[in-house]
Specification:
The structure is a single chain. The chain starts with 15 loop residues before the first helix and ends with a helix. The longest helix has 15 residues. With about 220 residues, the protein is of the alpha/beta class. It has a five-stranded parallel sheet with strand order 1-2-3-4-5. Helix 2 links the parallel strand 1 and strand 2. Helix 6 runs parallel beside helix 8.
């Protein structure tokens, strides 16, 4: 979790050989075939994830694996997708977040709608399913920009989509930039689907308006 400690972005990586060895152990000893890589940025450092995938692809049971990993639109490279699929990766969870260029710029996402559509299509073409992650209530969001996000999600036709409300989690820049009175007053308030869920307000939207839109968006989409 890259923001678990404030004011640092240091993290440790396990060696590719260790990752492959553990997956082989889980398969042979416990018949485990479905796995999730919890690394929020798995498809980022090619010197790390490509050797893992090369090692997995060589396993005699690679075609039985069902792996879910996280990726970013701007780090997906079409020429690596065939290897990723051979390694047993069947699901990419993509952080798309917003359907508004302006809102994405505020969240420091350097890609546009065409990049998003191209990435989703190339991933699906490689035989990998896409989970789209979308966020409502980012700092620059309005009712119109949240509607654009929902419209984009519907048009992409991902195999699945997650809808979240923006939160100022402790340790994140949003937490530091938020007036304390707008933060949850209990830990349950940070939980996306709890009764106490309290997302961030924006300049034009209250916390409850963001939450209501998020919930209604789920029903409209599915």
């Amino acid at each position: 979790m890259i923001n678990i400690f404030q004011h640092t972005n240091r993290y440790r990586m396990r060696s590719p050989d260790a990752v492959v060895s553990q997956i082989e152990h889980l398969y042979r000893e416990y018949d485990v075939k479905t796995l999730k890589f919890a690394d929020e940025m798995f498809v980022l450092n090619e010197r790390h994830y490509l050797p893992i995938c090369e090692g997995l692809a060589k396993l005699p049971f690679a075609d039985e694996l069902n792996i879910w990993c996280y990726a970013r639109v701007d780090t997906v490279k079409p020429d690596t997708l065939t290897l990723l699929r051979k390694a047993g990766i069947r699901w990419f969870c993509l952080g798309i977040e917003s359907g508004s260029d302006h809102v994405r710029d505020g969240a420091k996402k350097a890609f546009d709608d065409r990049d998003i559509r191209d990435a989703v299509k190339s991933i699906q073409k490689a035989g990998i399913n896409v989970i789209g992650n979308f966020i409502f209530g980012l700092p620059d969001d309005t009712m119109e920009s949240m509607r654009a996000t929902l419209d984009l999600a519907k048009s992409l036709e991902c195999e699945y989509s997650n809808f979240y409300a923006a939160q100022g989690y402790p340790g994140s820049p949003l937490f530091d930039a938020t007036d304390p009175k707008d933060l949850p007053d209990c830990w349950a308030g940070y939980s996306q689907h709890s009764y106490e869920c309290r997302p961030l307000p924006t300049a034009t939207l209250t916390s409850s308006e963001v939450l209501r839109f998020r919930d209604d968006a789920f029903h409209e989409y599915f």
